[in-house]
Specification:
2 copies of one chain form a homodimer.
Chain A lengths: L2 H8 L3 H9 L6 E2 L5 E2 L2 H15 L4 H11 L6 H35 L9 H6 L4
Antiparallel strand pairs in A: 1-2
Helix pairs in contact in A: 3-4
The structure holds a DNA duplex (30 and 30 nucleotides).
Chain lengths: 129, 129
Amino acid sequence: MKIRDAAEKTDLTEKTIRYYEDIGLVVPCRRSNGYRDFSEQDVHKLNFLSRARKLGFSVDDCRQLLSLYSDRKRASKDVKRIAEAHLHEIEVKINELSKMQETLQFLVTNCKGNDRPDCPIINDLAGKL
Amino acid sequence: MKIRDAAEKTDLTEKTIRYYEDIGLVVPCRRSNGYRDFSEQDVHKLNFLSRARKLGFSVDDCRQLLSLYSDRKRASKDVKRIAEAHLHEIEVKINELSKMQETLQFLVTNCKGNDRPDCPIINDLAGKL
DNA sequence: CATAAACCTTCTAGTAACTGTAAGGTCAAG
DNA sequence: CTTGACCTTACAGTTACTAGAAGGTTTATG
């Protein structure tokens, strides 16, 4: 299967698929003309990557997950460990963003948003209270 | 004031401050020996940047905010517009992360995390259900 | 059959916002 | 006078791609 079809089947771009080959994640065979030839197996892996990335796993996490995916003797605790670590990162990010959101919402609400210069947002950023 | 002191007063690293000079955000004078010499004004601006970055504004947003900060004739609506756009981005990110969190939490909860290979996380990523 | 469109290839550079490291100049203290 | 703390620049690396250029191959059309 050529790269375009692989891209369509996996909801990845051709660029991304080539990139994943570059970094050694999924390396397809080549035809005699030099074109990449993706097997069903390759497409499965790309789909796996596509889904894992959409859950926010880093490419490095994906590499490990893909290795576990291909390992019939894997221990589910190894998978779970990676997922839990990622879950923790997500929680941390959500907390950070929520704090920003709260502060910003307060400032925006109190900003009149008119043609005058006085602005609680600027004041806050300037450290003036 | 030398860069080390500026860094301490603004909760930025020296690297970051040099970077901000590189991209033209805060450009201090130089002493005869080539050392940077930060004025109080410079430190105010760096502090402004430090706070804006901590609220998640992009460096590009910061550039605009800094310009508005220095503009006595600014209209608060210009500031508010930037802040609202950023607030919206934050909301979008939180929503994305929350979805990931929900899915991942479900999968992690259902993974036994033992030495056996069967794993709902891997199954989900593989598209098997 | 020629050619043009559609597809494929590699390579380099750019993105965001820094961080790390190396090589080297300056200055105050002992 | 030399040691150590501080300063400088410059270049590479980080993440995960994306854009674009230059060019080879295949397929469809006139």
